[in-house]
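notes to self, project folder thing:

trying the whole complex as one job this time. last attempt i did each chain seperately and stitching them together was a nightmare. two parts in total, labels are on each line so i dont mix them up again. if this works i'll redo the older ones the same way
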Amino acid sequence: MTIKVLIPTPLRPYTAKQSAVEVTAGTVGEALSDLVAQHPDLRKQLFSEEGKLRSFVNVYLNDEDIRYLSKDATPVKETDTIAIVPSVAGGLRSLDRLQRA
Amino acid sequence: MALKIPRSLLDKLRQHGEETHPYECCGVLVGEFDDADTKVVKGVVPCGNTRTDSPHNRYQISPSELLRIQREALLAGHDIVGFYHSHPDHPAQWSTTDLAEAHWTGCSYVITSVENGRAVLTNSFVLREQEDAKHFEDEAIDV
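result (full assembly):
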């Protein structure tokens, strides 16, 4: 079936600036595979060389993080939306080096 | 290359840093990208800091909160254009942790130094390139 994958701002250079891509899939894993098949330059952004989703890449099926569902094997249905959400974090640590201080 | 932000929104994110001092604040900038590599901020969305284990020197925005903000921004015809956080009693410069944990290429990362509970300096940095070569560039804030 066809479902929609929402693409965040930093990954749009790899999807011809599209904010959403339609993929054909029965599971979240198949959806991501179809996404990178359509847009091969995305593969390196989403997956490690071992083919694992990078740790800072969060994937949501509707409102749920797939880590708390069945991960790649999570089934999808036509009305679902997958969203890719890179993490946002940072801050100071006592030993951090400050730039241009 | 600049981050255009109305005074009222700049004040809002600076005040957030004062309110949370001595802990770090964090939030999202929503708005528009224009053709000249300039971003126009239309809204500032304060977020909770999920790093409750070390909130004085670390911040993290919940991905589910990011997702909600992204959805609401898209409905309003806007987009996520950047993020902000504070450095309590430290300069408004990015740290090695800030760079290591930055993944939104093309977006602005705004940092406010807050000294003794008072916002002092606010700087903006744009994340360039992808993971292997990523780096921050200074960005002018156009109020």
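what i see at first glance: The longest strand of chain A covers residues 81-86.
need to look closer tmrw
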